[in-house]
Amino acid sequence: MASQPFTVKWGIMATGGIAQTFTKDLLTNPASRDVDDVAHKLVAVASSSSKDSAASFLEKVKAPEGVKAYGSYAELVNNADVDIVYVATPHSHHFQNTMLALEAGKNVLCEKAFTVNAAQARKLVETAKAKNLFLMEAVWTRYFPLSVKIRELVQSGAIGPVYRVIADNSVGNDGPDGTVTFPDEHRMVNPDLAGGALLDLGIYSLTWLFQILYHLQPESQKEAPKTVAAINKYRTGADEMTNIILQFPQHKSMGVAMTALRIATDTDGKNSGGPAIKIQGPLGEIQVVGPAFRPQQYRIVKKDCDGKVEVVDCPIPTDAERGYWGHGMFWEADECARCLRDGKKESATLPLSESIVIMEVMEEALKQGDVQYPELITTAVFDPNSSLNTGKN
Ligand SMILES: NC(=O)C1=CN([C@@H]2O[C@H](COP(=O)(O)OP(=O)(O)OC[C@H]3O[C@@H](n4cnc5c(N)ncnc54)[C@H](OP(=O)(O)O)[C@@H]3O)[C@@H](O)[C@H]2O)C=CC1
Ligand SMILES: O=C1OC[C@@H](O)[C@H](O)[C@H]1O
Prior knowledge:
Layout: E1 6-13, H1 17-26, E2 38-46, H2 51-60, E3 68-70, H3 73-77, E4 84-87, H4 91-103, E5 107-111, H5 118-130, E6 135-138, H6 145-155, E7 164-168, H7 197-214, E8 226-233, E9 239-248, E10 253-260, E11 277-281, E12 284-289, E13 297-302, E14 310-313, H8 330-341, H9 352-368, H10 375-378, H11 387-390
Parallel strand pairs: 1-2, 1-4, 2-3, 4-5, 5-6, 7-10
Antiparallel strand pairs: 7-11, 8-9, 9-10, 11-12, 12-13, 13-14
Catalytic activity: D-xylose + NADP(+) = D-xylono-1,5-lactone + NADPH + H(+)
Domain GFO/IDH/MocA-like oxidoreductase: 149-254
GO molecular function: D-xylose 1-dehydrogenase (NADP+) activity; nucleotide binding
């Protein structure tokens, strides 16, 4: 008989869109994705707006009886039953909210982008290490079986050494009279919420560059990239289009990461425009069909394939007994559970040192494009009473 799964007790910080999606994934049966070694239990949710918002969240996700609803983040992180906190607030809040949880002794899975700048990322990592806590940036795509297979394929030498990766994660939100369709207050374009294409969407383009060109470098040859960026700013001051070239001179490799708010990677919604990602070596290329954050198909085009392209589908499993829920976020949750079970303080698939290098690249790109964010959200000094933690000005 199989042994009991290791069950992790989750606390959810914030009640917005992705908090709901993630929590629904947590509530799916792991067997629906052929997992039996770990399981998840929802024990609490907190809203900085009100306890009612937290209660309404629990209704929306059809939470089981007994899950606690809190009207403040402080109550959540002080719940002794919570093993790990999922931080699902805007980027602007990640540093203060994650510090709040770490200081209360909680392990943390923090949404992307990890922070607003590299100094904040370093402080989070330093704090987690000092307190012997698990910390991970929630770049869910890295944990897709599709990503695992592609990394293995590249490592096996299937296309030879990868010299170039091109990745795009752009959305077609062009609006009238020079606008984009997001209101200026929306987290996608609002500098007070660390809005902009790069931190929200471009991070996935960088994820593809990093998980191939950086992550797979042998430890003894780890080389951080040189960064060259071009940015168009929106009227709010946030970036609306950002293109970054990363160069790894010792590895003779380069990556091109693109992101934009006015033009979509997938113009017709049917992927007629081709792959979102191209991973290129002298023996061939791997093409990943977008979106870059939630891909479900890749193709292998070998130099000598004579037009015979291998197409590999990797559908995301759903749970028929729970309304066909299943978005693909459960794989990163499973990773957290396995790390906690095994006493690991970080994920080998996205080490904290790598999250820091990615933040350094994004900070450098934003600097080159003269994108600036306010002091309240860029400081690397923790303040439990910050309005970012209390929700009150
Ligand atoms: N992995 C993925 O696929 C995705 C990840 N994300 C990431 O998740 C995070 C949240 O995004 P998303 O859920 O779409 O955002 P939403 O705006 O839908 O939700 C954000 C939540 O954060 C809380 N919050 C606290 N302070 C503020 C504030 N000043 N303004 C707005 N919200 C505030 C609110 O919850 P409350 O009032 O309950 O405290 C709010 O509901 C971002 O970092 C984003 O990059 C987003 C979408 C997809
Ligand atoms: O992480 C994300 O992935 C999906 C996008 O639609 C969203 O804006 C972004 O935050």
